[in-house]
Write a structure and sequence with these properties.
Length: 1524
């Protein structure tokens, strides 16, 4: 810090000490003990601080004297310049006058300093030891200052000469003078208090006494500290030293002036400076300083003589600085008696901390002591010690005056090398014509003394002394008096006499300052004070040095630590700043991206709303313009109706529903391909095959199997938790591709916390190239899907890369996306709801299931065991294998694959019991013909292309072209086909025109190894050219229209039905596992595939190519094209043989098997249960599943009395192992006890009034699947109501119709009991409601159960609706009006079509729909019709009975009817062939239902009873009839 700041700080610190220490009576012993300080340390520290401030004030007084004498300076120009430079920068000048403590510049010490010294001594006077020590130190301090002031007043005229002669040596010697010793440490003590007094504390001022206590260390410490080398500070401090030491010098000069001393020889160690005016020969002085100690090694103590005052001043230099020190003069060489030794240091300073000198020169003798006697008292204890001290002084003090030198503490023992090093260093600044630091104090001092002399010429010496010392002398006297006992013992004369006894007499008798000074200047007093009081002061100073040293170490350490911490913080700040900037940039980028995303979402939402609005508009137009719509006319032509296959899937993933196609066309402008075009295409394929070569096929990695039966792994749970807590508008956004059958559209997939959005990039060049006619058939280009609609999530492959996802929705459609990489797939899965792969396959609904590999899904699922146990059909199992292995309707290259199972497509009749009519499923399609198999074997063995692995077939059994080949007659596949084939149909000879022809090609053509697609087993519409496309003429002049069916199939429906029967036959069941091995299993690849003639092109296999590793875009595009054209083999599901299916005979004793061939000897009628009431039983609901809380048969009579009759599941056990007669006599139905006892009929009677015009039929009631609630319609207030079957209480009233509700229907229930309820009314509309199995109310929201909203309003009828049926699996509602027609709606409200029967089939009364797609409608007067769900009339019949109840078996193959005749009849549904007639009952049948296992038929009779019949649909199965 600056000098001004340091002085201000020092003064403030001193004021604080005044207040806290001197003005208080605190005891510091506790503080000293706590801080581990020595006893009395604080007071000693205060004394050092007081001395420091006192000296500073002395310096200011001297500075003011100098300013007064500046004008009378007699120095030459050089000296004047030095003086100006020195004085112009002192700290004292810059001190503001109002802050200066100097009240009287002529005083030796100011009042405040005297008071502080007094306070130090007398504050803790009780602590006698401490007080005595402080008193001794203060005595020394005041004595030195008083004697020095006395000498200044006595001989001011010699100052200039003396100062000039001292030159460069003086400073080094002053360093070791007692005055320096006593003043310098005062500044050190201020350093202990962290007082920044370094401004005055330069190297030239370092306190090198010979006390031996830490002087070298202190010197080095201070040298190493950051001392401010200001000129002012240096001159101020040196002024003090010069002044105090010059007092001693002057008194000695006055003693020896009259003596005649031999002139020093020019060869002596010290060169004489005869005239001050000649300037300062610094170089010679330095030489003398160095030479003297070296010569002193041989010299003893010899008397010296001084020829003249100048020489004497020169020679007396050693002594003038030792007035109170123990240092001695070291003699010169013996060969040169007149020489002067310049050793100014005392005896062995490095060995003794105490006072070790032998004797001290008495230079204050006021009487006639001669130089001879004086010098005789001077000596050294030993020359070696003196030399050591001297060299220590030279290296430690003087050399450090040069800023260029760094001294290391502690100093080593000094040697000749040290001296020479000093000499070299010291002379260096003089050679550079610089003013060394030690010259500046003398210049300043000269000016000061000149001013003093000029100011005091008019006053006498006594007056001056009185004025200067009148304040300080009483303090000294006071100390002498108060501490007389101690001081008298301490201050002893040379002969041990007590000096203070006689001194006290003098002091008490006289108050003269002069006498006191004379007393102090006496030889005895001077020796005694020097010897005894000086020791106390030196100890005080050395303690300060040690504290300074420790403090310096501490400060350095703290400073280093602070610097380290600051550097670290700086580095952290830099890092944090960089991190902050990075975060800011990232945040800005994120915000920009988010804004872009929000903008994108807004635009996408607008576009999506536009698309939705168009769809709604089209829907409304369709409803209104329909023949049965408000704007329709019955005369509208049927020719303009175009249909397309809807994307709706049933539970077995069959797409069977056709909907209106506003974009339909007959494509009359489309031509067929020429044969030449195929040749060019073939060349292109050959070329493409040469584009990408792979030296080896990369083997599929062995997958780590997932343990799926335990809890979710922790990672999944954590990630799921994290994802569930995410907020914000967009949780995840990623580039993605929407994968549709013939379109892959790039765009952006965005996921919020509740929805998925996909927005196609319409600016993408690939998208612009897409045929615009394809786009209307591609759903999801501007898609939005709610999380609540998601039912399953599967990972999928796209182009053999595991980077796609397929999401299945509640509306029974699916959407497929491809992502940049697998990591994105995982993020997306964890952003979606936890639905797994759905509930169908016996797997937990967890995200890790969605991410599982196909092989893991296969192993963990229960579907194989269910298939083996014949709980599921062959079709369902094959569909399961296709689904988990990655086959999907959304990618025509990975379309589900099914086997050919029949070989006979020519005979008039097909006998499914003949093995010859079935294909060998253990061989691939290409190996069935032995001749062709030999060709493929030879091709494999003679493979010549070294760059691609050998294969048996160049084509695949499932490709996009194959799929479109089969489905070319139905939209949207017609449009897809045309888009993929340059808007041309196939050449007529290549078009799919006949089933037997296609089978022959698959056996003979070496380039045709096609397997079938699932539609062959459920979709008869694919064989009909319903839109009238012109497909051309074959070479045999036959026009191609519908597909030629085998002779044994009269219509497409027959072919599909028989083909499906063949698929489910025992022959296929026994072999199907072998075909699974070929397509999905261990024969798919590797040595087994080679042996089985089942090796395809390597680019059809998973893991054969990594598209990401192909950097060349053209090469990648070519590779993708090859994969697209070659087809893709499904994922391999198992690497060991697939287990076979259990035979039907093995399973016949297990209950609940669908293909159970039971003993026919059972009686037709199991039991009859008569209720107390005779009211006809108009409704029967058999919800008998064992997991229900109350498996029961609920009956409702015409008088609205219901009964919950408990079901005992015993019938299925008959014939099973362990079956007993006791169980046989146990009846399956137990009458409701409340009804039987007639005690709780109030809990079973629905008393609310029904509209009188309503005829109570089975349609008026619906029982929920859990038997707990009954829904009743027909009330006068146009509502239908919900009642609890346990209590009979009303739980909900549902309004919505404008007239009386006439009929109700319930769909099948799903997990949780949710289902659809449809209500039909006299207002000619139907409302579709949602029943919540969780809340047991109509509607989703339990808080709004009073006003639930219907899911859809179904219009189109113009009369009262009398019957309705709803099938959730097909998504259809079929309803009949009082006088017709029957209309088919979707559950979203679209009117699809009317089911129009033959003439006279006008008034529908009963409707039953099976999930297999049969819709049976009963019209008045015993007329039945069977329609397909797409409106085709399949069969019709008339019976001689007024039928009141109809029922379809669960597989849809059998129809059960009952009516007023009381006869139950069983029919074959497809053609109404009668299968069985049960014995007649004595009353008409009003209602009927089947138990869950399809083995018990319960009928409600008009007589008020129920009858249970044994029924086994398997007995009418063709295999059962033929074999058993």
């Amino acid at each position: 810090m600056s000098s001004e700041t340091a002085i201000t700080f020092l003064s403030r610190l001193m004021v604080m000490v005044d207040v806290l220490v001197f003005s208080s009576s605190l005891n510091f012993s506790e503080i000293e003990a706590e801080k581990n300080m020595s006893s009395g340390g604080l007071m000693r520290q205060c004394l050092r601080l007081v001395c420091c401030v006192a000296v500073r004030n002395c310096l200011e007084c001297r500075q003011r004297h100098r300013e007064r004498g500046n004008t009378s300076s007699i120095l030459n120009n050089k000296t004047q310049e030095i003086l100006h430079n020195a004085t112009s920068k002192t700290a004292i000048e810059t001190l503001p006058s109002n802050l200066s403590p100097i009240k009287d510049p002529d005083r030796l010490l100011q009042d405040v300093d005297i008071n502080r010294l007094r306070a130090v001594v007398f504050r803790d006077v009780d602590d006698s030891k401490q007080a005595q020590f402080l008193a001794l130190a203060v005595v020394y301090f005041i004595s030195v200052l008083m004697v020095s002031k006395y000498r200044d007043i006595l001989e001011p005229q010699r100052e200039t000469v003396r100062i000039s002669s001292q030159s460069g040596r003086s400073m080094r010697q002053e360093i070791n003078s007692p005055t320096s010793t006593e003043t310098a440490p005062t500044f050190e003590c201020s350093k202990d208090h962290l007082v920044p007094s370094e401004d005055f504390h330069t190297e030239s001022f370092l306190p090198h006494t010979d006390s031996g206590i830490g002087e070298e260390q202190v010197a080095s410490v201070l040298n190493g500290s950051d001392v401010d080398h200001s000129v002012g500070g240096t001159s101020v401090v040196n002024d003090l030293i010069s002044t105090l030491s010059s007092e001693v010098n002057k008194s000695q000069e006055s003693l020896s002036e009259s003596s005649s001393v031999e002139v020093l020889k020019p060869t002596s160690s010290v060169t004489s400076i005869s005239q001050p005016s000649k300037g300062i020969n610094v170089k010679e002085i330095l030489k003398s300083l160095v030479a003297a100690p070296m010569e002193g090694m041989e010299a003893g103590v010899e008397p010296l003589s001084y020829p003249d005052p100048a020489a004497k001043a020169q020679a007396m230099l050693p002594m003038q600085f030792h007035s109170f020190d123990r240092s001695v003069v070291v003699p010169v060489k013996k060969t040169s008696p007149g020489s002067l030794a310049v050793n100014t240091l005392g005896s062995s300073s490095s060995t003794s901390p105490g006072l070790t000198t032998g004797s001290t020169p008495n230079i204050f003798a006021a009487t006639s002591a001669t130089p001879k006697s004086m010098i005789n008292t001077t000596g050294a204890t030993d020359a070696a010690a003196s030399t050591s001290s001297s060299s220590s002084f030279v290296n430690g003090a003087t050399s450090k005056n040069l800023p260029a030198v760094q001294t290391v503490a502690p100093m080593p023992e000094d040697t000749v090398e040290n001296m020479s090093a000093f000499c070299e260093v010291d002379q260096n600044p003089l050679r550079q014509k610089l003013t060394p630091p030690e010259l500046k104090p003398f210049s300043s001092l000269t000016g000061l003394k000149t001013a003093s002399r000029g100011a005091g010429q008019c006053l006498s010496i006594t007056t001056k002394l009185e004025r200067a010392l009148e304040k300080v002398a009483p303090l000294l006297r006071e100390i002498f008096v108060d501490f007389a006992p101690f001081l008298s013992r301490t201050l002893l004369g040379s002969h041990g006499q007590e000096l203070l006894i006689e001194g006290l007499v003098c002091m008490k008798s006289s108050t003269s300052v002069v006498e006191l000074v004379m007393l102090l200047c006496s030889q005895e007093w001077q020796n005694s004070i020097q010897k005894n009081a000086g020791l106390a002061f030196i100890e005080l100073i050395n303690e300060g040095r040690l504290l300074c040293h420790a403090m310096k170490d501490h400060i350095v350490r703290v400073a280093n630590e602070a610097e380290f911490i600051l550097n670290r913080q700086r580095a952290e700040d830099v890092h944090k700043h960089a991190e902050f900037e990075s975060n800011c940039a990232q945040y800005a980028a994120d915000r920009k991206e988010e804004e872009k995303m929000c903008d994108h979402l807004i635009c996408a939402a607008k576009h999506r709303d536009h698309v939705t609005a168009n769809q709604l508009k089209q829907k409304i137009v369709n409803i209104l313009t329909n023949k049965h719509g408000a704007w329709g006319t019955l005369a509208q032509s049927q020719l303009h109706d175009f249909w397309r296959l809807d994307y709706w899937e049933d539970d077995l993933r069959r797409r069977r529903r056709f909907v209106r196609n506003p974009f339909g066309s007959t494509h009359l402008d489309v031509v067929c391909k020429e044969l030449q075009e195929y040749a060019s295409e073939k060349d292109e394929v050959v070329k493409s095959k040469t584009v990408y070569r792979s030296p080896t096929v990369t083997t599929q990695n062995s997958e780590t199997e997932l343990i799926l039966d335990g809890d979710d792994d922790a990672v999944s749970l954590l990630q799921e938790k994290e994802m569930d807590n995410l907020g914000g508008p967009v949780v995840l956004s990623s580039p993605a591709q929407l994968v549709a059958p013939v379109l892959v559209a790039r765009g952006t997939l965005s996921i919020t916390t509740t929805e998925i959005y996909f927005e196609v990039d319409e600016d993408d060049p690939a998208f612009k190239r897409v045929d615009s006619k394809v786009l209307p058939y591609t759903e999801g280009l501007h898609g939005k899907w709610m999380f609540s609609e998601i039912r399953a999530v599967f990972t999928r492959r796209y182009l053999l890369q595991n980077t796609a996802l397929e999401v299945f929705m509640a509306n029974r459609t699916s959407v497929m996306f491809n992502f940049p990489d697998q990591a994105t797939v995982k993020k997306v899965v964890y952003s979606l709801p936890r639905v797994g792969v759905g509930t169908s396959y016996g797997l937990p609904q967890a995200r890790r299931i969605s991410l599982a590999t196909p092989r893991q899904l296969f192993k963990s699922s229960n579907m194989t065991q269910r298939w083996q146990r014949r709980e599921i059909s062959n079709f369902e199992y094959l569909m399961f294998l296709n689904t988990i292995s990655g086959r999907t309707y959304n990618d025509l290259n990975q379309y589900p694959v099914f086997p050919w199972v029949l070989t006979n497509y020519d005979s008039e009749e097909l006998d499914l019991t003949l093995p010859a009519n079935f294909r060998d499923l253990s061989k691939p399609i290409g190996a069935l013909n032995p001749k062709r198999a030999a060709f493929f074997t030879e091709r494999y063995e003679s493979w010549e292309d070294d760059q691609t692995p050998p294969c048996h077939y160049n084509t695949h059994y499932s490709t996009a072209a194959t799929t479109l080949h089969w489905l070319v007659r139905i939209e949207p596949f017609t449009m897809f086909f045309l888009s993929a084939n340059n808007n041309k149909f196939d050449h007529p000879d290549r078009t799919f025109s006949g089933i037997s022809r296609s089978w022959r090609n698959c056996q003979r053509d070496t380039s045709d190894v096609k397997e079938l697609i699932p539609e062959f087993y459920y979709l008869p519409e694919m064989f009909v050219n319903s839109n009238g496309y012109h497909l051309g003429m074959r070479e045999d002049r036959t026009m191609i229209c519908d597909v030629d069916l085998p002779a044994w199939a009269k219509k497409p429906e027959d072919f599909v039905r028989i083909n499906r029967m063949a698929l489910e036959s025992e022959f296929v069941s026994c072999q199907l596992h072998q075909w699974i091995d070929l397509i999905f299993g261990y024969k798919q690849r590797g040595p087994e595939a080679m042996r089985a003639l089942n090796v395809f092109h390597y680019l059809t296999y998973e893991g054969s190519v990594n598209l990401d590793s192909i950097t060349d875009p053209l090469l990648r595009e070519a590779t993708e094209a090859q994969i697209q054209s070659f087809g893709q083999t499904p994922s391999q599901l198992l690497i060991e043989p697939h287990p076979p299916r259990s035979s039907a005979m093995h399973l016949c004793f297990l209950p609940q098997s669908p293909l159970m061939f039971k003993d026919q000897m059972q009686q037709d009628v199991i039991m009859v249960l008569k209720f107390p009431s005779n009211s006809p039983v108009t409704h029967v609901a058999a919800n008998t599943l064992p997991h229900l809380t109350i498996p029961a048969v609920v009956t409702v009579t015409c008088s609205r009395l219901f009964a919950v009759n408990r079901w005992h599941n015993t019938v299925g056990l008959r014939g099973a192992p362990g079956y007993s007669l006791e169980q046989a006599h146990h009846l399956p139905i137990e009458m409701d006890s409340l009804v039987a006892n007639n005690t709780g009929s109030n809990k079973r009677q629905i008393t609310d009034l029904v509209d009188q015009s309503i005829q109570i039929t089975t349609h008026c009631f619906v029982v929920t699947a859990d038997n707990r609630y009954i829904l009743v319609c027909g009330f006068w207030d146009k509502s239908f109501r919900v009642y609890s079957s346990e209590t009979g209480k009303l739980t909900q009233i549902v309004f919505g119709h404008w007239d009386v509700v006439t009929c109700l229907a319930r769909s099948e229930s799903y997990i949780g009991g949710d289902c659809y309820i449809v209500s039909g009314s006299r207002d000619a509309t139907l409302l579709l409601w949602y029943w919540s199995g969780r809340h047991h109310i109509i509607g989703d929201n339990p808080n709004n159960s009073d006003y639930p909203a219907p899911r859809a309003v179904l219009t189109g009828h113009d009369q009262e609706v009398v019957c309705v049926s709803v099938c959730a699996e097909l998504g259809l509602v079929i309803s009949g009006a009082k006088e017709g027609p029957c209309l088919v709606h979707t559950i979203t409200g679209d009117l699809l079509r009317a089911l129009e029967g033959p003439e006279h089939y006008l008034c529908p009364r009963l409707i039953s729909v099976s999930s297999e797609g049969h819709c049976i409608i009963y019209y008045e007067r015993g007329r039945f019709c069977n329609f397909s769900i797409n409106g085709k009339l399949l069969a019709q019949m008339e019976v001689n009975d007024s039928t009141r109840a109809i029922l379809l078996s669960s597989d849809g193959h059998n129809l059960v009817t009952g009516g007023d005749n009381g006869v139950v009849e069983v029919w074959q549904a497809c053609d109404f062939k009668q299968l069985y007639i049960y014995p007649g009952c004595d009353a008409g049948i009003r209602a009927m239902d089947l138990s869950h296992d399809q083995r018990t038929l319960i009928t409600g009779m008009a007589s008020g009873s129920i009858v249970a019949f044994n029924i086994d649909f398997n007995r009418w199965h063709y295999e059962h009839q033929n074999r058993y």
